[in-house]
Amino acid sequence: MPIISSRILRVMMFFLFIIALIFLCIYIYLYSHKDDGIIRNHYSNYMDIPENDGVHTWLPDFFPSTAKNISIYTNIEGNYFYSYFYLIGDDDVEFRKSLAIMATQRIKDMLSKNDNSIKNVWCKYGEISGEGSRKNLYFIGEINAGHYYITHIRTTGSKDCVSR
Prior knowledge:
This protein has 164 residues and is an alpha+beta fold. The protein folds into two domains: 1-34; 39-163, no CATH class. 30% of the residues lie in helices and 30% in strands. It is built from three helices and eight strands, in the order H-E-E-E-H-E-H-E-E-E-E. It has an eight-stranded antiparallel sheet with strand order 1-2-3-7-6-5-4-8. The longest helix has 31 residues, at 2-32.
């Protein structure tokens, strides 16, 4: 009789282990696929962004129309965005010339939390489509030659910008 009960106990323990393992897998799957509220869009060039797409309401008027390989991440609830893009040749040179005001180390550190490959950070004011003539402060990070990062941080101001 004790042999039967120990076998039953082992079988029950095995099934409990399997059930616990299944619940653990379900929990890990659900946790890793939770919605972070970020909308991700990728475009091979600026002209590929549909005119009626809400992406244009995030980008400043100075965003280069010659940009390539554009990735845009937006969070409507958090009211923020960031974007990566590339510029090639003369387009890169002209864009760099337009970046005259450096951001403070505080801003560079803040942006580096999102992407630690950012080397330099500039400030630039721009308008957003549909917001009239209101100027917004943007931060442009250089990752490497021709590769940029841009964002708008609403809690900052001109105190975070310094002339070269």
